[in-house]
Amino acid sequence: MSSVDSMLSIIMVNLLSWPSWISKTYISPALLGLLQCLFDKVSIEVLVSGFTSPAFWPRTGVLQGSILSPFLYSIYINSLPALLRSVRLPISARYYSSNPQREFDGLWLNCLLYADDVVLIGAPEVMPRLLKAAEEHSFSLGYRWNPAKCVVLNSALSLGGPQLKLYGDNIPIQSTFNYLGVPFDDTGTIATGLLIQRNVTSAVSAMRRFLLPVGIRSPGFSRLTATRLYTIFIRPRFEYGLCICTFLQKQLALLDRAQDQCLRLAFGGHPRASTTVFKHLTSTPSMHVRAHTLVLKMIIRVHHLPDDCLLAKLVPFVAAAPIKNRFRWPALLRQNPLWSNLQYTGGYASVDDRLAHLSTDAHVKQSVLAYRNDLLHRILNRPDPPSHPSMAYGVAPCSSYRL
Q: Which segments constitute the Reverse transcriptase domain (predicted)?
């Protein structure tokens, strides 16, 4: 957000057993019964070569990486946001002319939580109080934050502000930070360039480490199968986080070049081999088309969120804010051709009519296909349309005539 003055990420490092905190937080009887069936009196036996070990009873609770972990952690620290919102904001001429209004459904947004990943948002003079509240919450429930994994963005230390501490330990200061896998800069804005560069490195490395060793170039895999393997296992690494980003043309070109590199690795082409025919035969869209498609699906999903979701509450405020605030949501709507161009939304201008038209996957695919066809027609209708690669080589006049 543009109003971010300071940002902190805190990550829990210890796994906790649920019975110790079940009495301190709200949990429905049905969920409690389900947890008891999953974790009470559970025994494990190891079977090796037909021999069974004696039964033993694990005491670790929910294993790290379990799909239940984020959900249970959300319940575990569900009382933290209310405690942080109760922190009094000072009336100071330096930072505030008046007490900030509660903009979003009567609440102050000074924290973001997803499972055990927490962000605190506040002015430099407020942040120590928020950290103190987080410490008190950890003491009340018996867990501990890890100061070494915390990060402060846009610190006021150079301007005479306080050194932020947690349990008496200084919190590191950095200019960027990854939250839920998305890099942010010191203004709280998504660092799109860093995100794309990281995605490109991850995808190309995965292509070399995972698909090449299994023989994706071998005759055992057809070109179509190789492309599908790339689409399933590699392309998602390119696409992570793209649905909430706005792009420069050079950033989209970088994604396209990286995808071409992976496709050359798949069919064994030399470093400068053209991938145009290969992508056409396998109907593989370019990465900039995929980026616009992901943003379109994100726009549709946001409009269908329940009213009590945080993002659904933020959208009206962001849409009504002055353009000088430069929120990302209006830019996503404006820069996405699949949403802003009436040609791809069935000719409908109103938001409700567009959403009704794009409510089915068939209409979304139809819009994307029309956009891809328009891009192809623009290339073919240029004053200097691209020629076939075979025309670059010397051939006999008769062969040239046939081509």
A: 1-184
